[in-house]
Amino acid sequence: MTDLTDKVAIVTGASRGIGRAIALLLALQGAKVVCVARSAEELEDVAQKTAGLAVPADVADETDAQNVIDEAIRRFGRIDILVCNAGVGSFNLLEHFTVADWDQMFAVNVKGTFLLCKAALPHLKAQHSGHIVGIASDVSKRTFQHGAAYGASKYAQDAVLSTLRKEVRSFGIKVSTIYPGLVDTYFNDSRPGSPNAEKTHLKPADIAQAVRYVLEAPTHVVIDELMIHPLTQEY
């Protein structure tokens, strides 16, 4: 198994939910964590708990995304892991979506992944090593009512990561994508901990363990795609 001790890991959307769980677990495994999110106050809390670096940023902003990578390099001199987890979603009939809703989901879910990967790649290629992990969704592989905008953004994010996997493999860089089902978080204005979610949703820690699993795979093992969903989830 690959040792994560002293690996430099950037985690976006790290202030709460899945991103926070990933940041905390990677720190527990010995990684040096760069925590990224828009909320500076919540971000500082998780950075303190991980003994990591807090970089407030909007991943959909090109300058902010580049600054995340630059700060990681300035602080630690390298990047070993990039977890593109930041994501937003809203759900409605297609005819009721606003252009602003559509643009926001594509900006964060797709453009954010693109910008962080683009900024990190020169460093990863120079090292001939590194691992990019995208947190997509099981709706990257299916469709459902009220999910046109979110699903389209996740299909697009999946395409970005799948294509990138083919482009960087010869440089010794891995790209893995995780497709969670329903997760008990603040996503889509939800509140975690409801009795219903206890029975039907994954926990953020479940997704963090999936990330750990793909990161700790031996060097010669490539895990491109990992689907994870609760056994009670209905399709």
TrEMBL record:
Pfam families: adh_short. It comes from Hymenobacter algoricola. Signal peptide: none annotated. This is SDR family NAD(P)-dependent oxidoreductase. Transmembrane segments: none annotated. Gene3D superfamilies: NAD(P)-binding Rossmann-like Domain. The keyword NADP applies. Belongs to the short-chain dehydrogenases/reductases (SDR) family. Keywords: NADP, Oxidoreductase.
